[in-house]
Amino acid sequence: MTGSILFDPVLPVWIIACLGGVALAALALAAWRGLSGWALRGLGVAVILAALMGPTLSREDREDLTDIAIVVEDASASQRLGDRADMTGQAADALEARLTARGVEVRRVSVADGTDDSGTQLMTALAEALASEPQGRIAGTFLLSDGRLHDLERAPTLPAPLHLLHTGRATDWDRRLIVEGAPAFAILDEEITLTLRIEDSGAAPEGMGEVPLDISIDGAAPQRFAVPVGRPIELPLALPHGGRNVLEFATPEAEGELTARNNTALVQINGVRDRLRVLLVSGEPHAGGRTWRNLLKSDSSVDLVHFTILRPPDKQDGIPVDELSLIAFPTRELFLEKIDDFDLIIFDRYKRRGILPALYLQNVADYVQKGGAVLFAAGPDFAGANSLYRSPLEAIVPARPTARVVDQAYRPAITDLGQKHPVTAGLEDMHDGKWGRWLRQIEVDAPKGDVLMSGAGDRPLLMLARVGEGRVSLLASDHAWLWNRGYEGGGPQLELLRRLAHWMMKEPELEEEALWAEATGQRMRIIRRSLGADARDVTITAPDGSEVTLPLEEVAPGRFEAQYDGPQIGLYRLISGDQSAVIGLGPAAPVEFEQTIASGAALAPLIAGANGAVRAIEDGVPNIRAVREGRPAAGRDWLGITPRGAYVTQSVTQTALLPAWLVLILIAALVTGAWLREGRR
Hints:
The protein has an 8-stranded mixed sheet. A 5-stranded parallel sheet has the order 4-3-5-6-33, with helices on both faces. The protein has 12 helices and 36 strands.
């Protein structure tokens, strides 16, 4: 029970002060003139002024509240190294027992790993815990952690001392592999430089001059090198293929180090071609002659060499050579000396005219066998006696012409196989599926490869084939340009020819048999593309070597998918039939393992500002003492809390000190006494 005097003035205080001033002046005048009874009248005025102030005695019935201490336990990944988790749990239990023995309520808060590899959100958890408790009852806060947090900028305002009991031991040490300067993209056949560094921290053993480093690309067998510790290493590297290249760098776990989780680094680099070199050889000019040229020139990544045979050697028209604005066709240079420099060769309505001897055409066939690409855009000349089919190119042409030219209108259609092939899949959805007709087709039979499109009378129109290490395609019509002109609504001519050219140049996104995965956080979407009737299941090998098999569901013709949540961070290997792929989920070394040696350095300024201290749990759990607010709250073997003296008011009783009846009695008595005093005089 506590009491205090409160005032509830009847009139504004300034009015009461003015009345008091007037009364004091009158009393001073009466005293100066020696009038009798002035003292009693002054007492009466004082009683009236006091009554106007409304004095009240307020008495509160209070209940004392216990102090609260917040204990934050770091349960992040770095706290699961060694025996840190056990140390944290035992220290928290001992600390709670000592605080409870002093009558302090304990609030224990556990902090897990942050989402999306955001690390230890220690200050966020502390701020939330403080916000849920009355600030007037917080006597102290204790952090049980390795001191490696990632949200120090979110530190709250602290109403009481803050202490850190850090885990870890003085003998702890760890090794870490760091990759710096890894680009997201790199040009094929051009060397890039990655900077690697292997560093030891903590009480690392002496004499570690060089350590092994394993380098693997796309999950292949690693190559091992010896590299120095503590020094940057520049690694020259050329990507082996286009598309995504997954590079894994690893150093074996050393005896005694805290963890091997940061001994591995994954780098994913997309390989892109600098320039795609294309040779376009056109025969006699025709209405669609600019189609291929415009398509290839519109792609900034394509270097195009285009020759149109306007004047064959057998043409005799009497025009002097020095008046011709033509150049000689550099056949030897293109088809003998520099043929391997081209990624794609296109013959657009070209026929044998004595310009390219059989030796050069044989060289083109050999070029395909060794990995080159040739596309034949056939016109009526392909069906004639001078057809390229009737040359050494016969071995690579995907189909044999029957010598018949079909001159009738037809609408190109995608075959069942074409619905699955990435070159033609989805084309029917373009232009609302309403394609214009073509008016001519070269009849062929005995196709050797995949027939993706059909034309008049269901005859093969577009054929693709693999020959040796290379690729060949045949478009049995020279009327694709009608789509470009918008004839009868047009069609997806540019998209078809673009895909066709890119498939010929072995772009990874257009492979008909492929397996890859796309990662979003810890979830991967596995995609299998196949021309077969169905795709096999996919076998997933996790970073720890465990395997799981998932069925693939067909989501579109030739496209099969599955979803998988990876339980671990690291490199996953995927196998489906004869296709394999690798993908990295999250960083190989999460932010939790960038710094693993326990330290209070990051929290030291914040703790010092709150009069707290940093102590190592391996030295024992300190005792608890009470200290006054603002005083240092730590000693050699103790940590302090600040008692807050918080309470809750149960009830309040107010009693008027000058009730009306008492005021009337006092005033009457004083006025009567003053009158009698003056009358006796």
